[in-house]
Amino acid sequence: MRVLLAITLLISGASGALAASEADFKAAYAAAEAAEKEAGNLRNRWLPTETALAAARKAAEGGDFDAATAQAKEAEALAKASIFQATSEKERWKDMEIR
Amino acid sequence: MTRAAEAIDPVGDAKAFRDYFIKKFPKVKLEDFVNGPYSLNEDMRKQWEEKEEFPPYEFALDAGKEMFAKPFKNGKGYADCFPNGGIGIRQNYPYFDEKEGKVVTLELALNRCREANGEAPLSYVKDDMASLTAYMAFTSRGKPMNIKIPNDPRALDAYENGKRYFYTRRGQLNFSCANCHVQNPGERLRAEILAPALGILNAMPIYRSEWSGMGTISRRFMTCNSQTRAEPLEPQADEYRDLEYYLSYLSNGLPISGPGARP
What we know:
The complex is a heterodimer of chains A (99) and B (263). Chain A has 99 residues and is mostly helical.
């Protein structure tokens, strides 16, 4: 019985630690926005990044900070991929050129 | 010699580009590339030839002619803004404006004409701009594209920027313009048959069944960006102007066939 209680407490504690707070969302969203701004400076924003940012804002407005944080992280990952693309294509485009 | 040190060579580029398409499609006549997918697919060509008897761009053409002739509030008109009264000049656009140091497209020139005469600019992607450019293209039908690159390093830079944009992969799908229109013309992309890049702008503006309406060059570029899941740039962004300059230069000598119709 004691073991069961301990496991229950552990699980509830663990799931409590996984729930995202508003602060978590704000941090994740700020990171995503910063990455998207950099992608914009490189003239290479992606549509799915904007979609994920909008979904993050909508979820946060509804108080669902788990979903909001997950969407913000998704947006950051997409924005970073677009930055990588723009950076690597600075020279790589020449490989495709018809000569 | 490193790539960075290579000279910008529009003449050599145009020859290599043309040779590539001639080799890839040996049965297609050079001047036929301006007909896009219809030059590459016999079934589509037959359907298109039948459609051309009552072309879907005809309403836009009539509207464009009327708009072009209608004076502005100050009594002047489009004809006052362009050489030869704007008739039979589409093949000379875009051009490099040495005063401005930038490429000027026909769409941009039309809106500058409006603004210089106290009129509000038109949307670059909607019907009125497409109608006007349709009419102007029609008056140039058959005339060879005639894009000049003046002896000005800024013009060469604009050309090179256009080339870079054309070959650069973008969007979540990681596609460049060249992936579709150089590597895969004639192939299907979902329901579409991809057009060859050679002569692709000679048919603009176009009526697209997919759009259920007319589209300008601005609209075409922005839609291509969206299809790769890249956020389109603003219409007439420097990159688009340079891209139009590059692509049009490569099609020098090929006839203007616009306005066109596409699936």
